[in-house]
């Protein structure tokens, strides 16, 4: 059990109030009409399964019901921070470029 | 349909609360009762948009609340639920007029007012041990809820809103579909605290209690 800060409510709440919503920032194929089956397969089924720092989505189901981005360490469960999806994406892109 | 006779009934009608109600006294450390058949309107729209916030204020006469807070006034109680959603609790009879007012003021805006009166109900929980009882139900730090706060959290396995007006008690806004479950959970958890279904206190200036119609029955016919 851990506590998560909801960027929309501005409050830190118990994990029980939240639902896990998978890996964050998976881009949909840019040209859906022309995407190959392999690209669709990647988009739908392939996930990173990272050991260490991982960008993921959580939904505050018992509160504001908004989905937001969390950077969490999958080994230690430490949370580096939580952001709205828009605010987190900038950081995520900066990190993935580096 | 000549035999169609629509009626309203409280989600807790099967517990027959009006018949169980006793006068409140100090020996009851946890008291609960339902505020039956209130009106609930969901207001959607980006609250950080000044035009939407102004339209909500003009339609309801209530200030748009800050995060996890509620505001109150003549029309009832306006509870913050998310950055783009508020819940307006009002007297059942006032719902059509408020919906019409919202429709008028929301014209041209990306905002919406939806009547959800059939979907929710409110329970008043009071007595010296009411916070202890809440701790039986959920993981939230219930003692941190101050007057004017509205915490949306987990009660048992169901979601619920916990609103505090004063130190005497809290108002739980719960879903119709979970009302039976939560009422049973409250009554079971409250056994050690001399639980009683107590008469609601006189409305006074309480923004919630004064929304209950005097002598409100748990079941009433609806004009078709």
From TrEMBL, chain A:
One of its GO terms (molecular function) is sarcosine oxidase activity. Pfam families: SoxD. InterPro entries: SoxD (IPR006279), SoxD_sf (IPR038561). One of its GO terms (biological process) is tetrahydrofolate metabolic process. This is Sarcosine oxidase delta subunit heterotetrameric. It comes from Pseudogulbenkiania ferrooxidans 2002.
TrEMBL record, chain B:
Coiled coil: none annotated. Transmembrane segments: none annotated. It holds the Pfam family SoxG. This is Sarcosine oxidase gamma subunit. It comes from Pseudogulbenkiania ferrooxidans 2002. The lineage of its organism: Bacteria, Pseudomonadati, Pseudomonadota, Betaproteobacteria, Neisseriales.
């Amino acid at each position: 059990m851990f506590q998560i800060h909801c960027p929309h409510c501005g409050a830190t709440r118990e994990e029980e109030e939240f639902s896990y919503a998978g890996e964050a920032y998976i881009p949909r194929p840019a040209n859906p009409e022309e995407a190959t089956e392999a690209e669709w397969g990647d988009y739908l089924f392939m996930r990173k399964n990272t050991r260490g720092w991982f960008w993921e989505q959580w939904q505050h189901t018992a509160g504001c019901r908004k989905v937001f981005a969390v950077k969490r360490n999958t080994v230690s469960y430490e949370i580096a921070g939580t952001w709205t999806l828009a605010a987190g994406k900038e950081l995520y892109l900066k990190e993935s470029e580096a | 349909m000549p035999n169609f006779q629509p009626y309203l009934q409280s989600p807790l009608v099967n517990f027959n609360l009006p018949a169980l109600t006793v006068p409140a006294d100090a020996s009851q450390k946890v008291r609960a009762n339902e505020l039956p058949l209130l009106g609930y309107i969901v207001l959607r729209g980006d609250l950080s948009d000044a035009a939407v916030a102004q339209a909500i204020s003009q339609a309801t006469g209530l200030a748009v609340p800050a995060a996890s807070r509620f505001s109150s006034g003549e029309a009832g109680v306006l509870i913050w639920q998310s950055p783009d959603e508020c819940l307006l609790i009002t007297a059942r009879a006032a719902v059509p007029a408020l919906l019409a007012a919202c429709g008028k003021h929301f014209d041209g805006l990306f905002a919406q007012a939806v009547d959800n009166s059939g979907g929710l109900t409110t329970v008043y929980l009071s007595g010296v041990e009411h916070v202890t009882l809440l701790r039986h139900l959920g993981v939230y730090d219930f003692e941190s809820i101050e007057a004017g706060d509205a915490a949306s959290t987990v009660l048992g396995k169901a979601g619920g809103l916990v609103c505090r007006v004063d130190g005497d008690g809290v108002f739980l806004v719960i879903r119709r579909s979970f009302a039976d479950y939560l009422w049973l959970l409250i009554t079971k958890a409250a056994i050690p605290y001399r639980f009683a279904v107590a008469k609601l206190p006189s409305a006074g200036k309480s923004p919630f209690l004064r929304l209950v119609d005097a002598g409100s029955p748990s079941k009433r016919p609806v004009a078709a």
